[in-house]
Specification:
An eight-stranded mixed beta barrel has the order 3-4-5-7-6-9-10-11. The chain is built from five helices and twelve strands. It has 220 residues and is of the alpha+beta class. This is Lipoprotein.
């Protein structure tokens, strides 16, 4: 009987001790809360760091638009990032087809919106204030795989902003190109029409055309 009473006492003691081991005390809970509140940015988000603060965006966007007449490709790299207080930081930078091979471009900053390769617009806006464009300096961009990074420098060489993050690719082609590319797999889908011949472009989201596939493969 004594042995049985001792065994029952040990089992009762163990049952009482187990919940205490699993309980989280006030100190541990308080220490964990800052990590929960200060969550990092989603993996892959673009981060822009400037003198005014930090901005973020889902990606740096590379857009390619292929024209049939004249047979050229219009390409643009752009970024529109936002800060927690509602401010914005943007750039637009036309590039040529050489950029797809070199993955590097440098442009001179200009305040006007009419752009071409070698020129770029960088502007920012704080809250509901006016948009301010930089009128001097350079924008340098380098892409490695699908990751873009760059910096904006003043004329005197001082760094005004840096950015780094993933590059997304968007490709537009004439409707006939996409219809021909999809013809072996399925009947051509209806495409938009336009009074101006050759002005309509459609998004080749699946990279069915060789032109868009080549661009997308260059930034993988």
């Amino acid at each position: 009987m004594r042995h049985g009473a001792q065994l029952a006492a040990l089992l009762l003691l163990g049952a009482c001790a187990k919940p205490k081991e699993e309980r989280v005390g006030p100190h541990e809970a308080h220490a964990a809360s800052p990590a929960t509140a200060e969550l990092p940015q989603p993996r892959g988000a673009v981060t822009v760091r400037t003198e005014q603060g930090t901005y973020s965006a889902p990606s740096v966007r590379f857009s390619a638009e292929f024209l049939e007449d004249p047979p050229v490709a219009l390409m643009l790299v752009a970024l529109s990032a936002q800060s927690e207080d509602g401010g914005t930081w943007r750039f637009r930078m036309p590039v040529n087809e050489q950029f797809v091979k070199s993955k590097h471009a440098t442009a001179r900053l200009v305040p006007q919106t009419a752009l071409g390769p070698g020129l770029a617009v960088v502007d920012s806006q704080q809250g509901k204030g006016p948009s301010m464009a930089m009128d001097e300096g350079t924008l340098e961009l380098t892409v490695t795989g699908n990751q873009a990074r760059g910096e904006v420098r003043m004329k005197d060489g001082r760094v005004r902003a840096t950015f780094e993050g993933p590059l997304s690719v968007e490709c537009m082609v004439p409707p006939a190109w996409l219809s021909r590319a999809n013809a072996p797999a399925a009947p051509p889908a209806p495409v938009p029409s336009s009074p101006g011949e050759g002005t309509v472009r459609v998004l080749d989201e699946a990279q069915a055309t060789s032109q868009c596939r080549s661009v997308a493969n260059a930034f993988r």
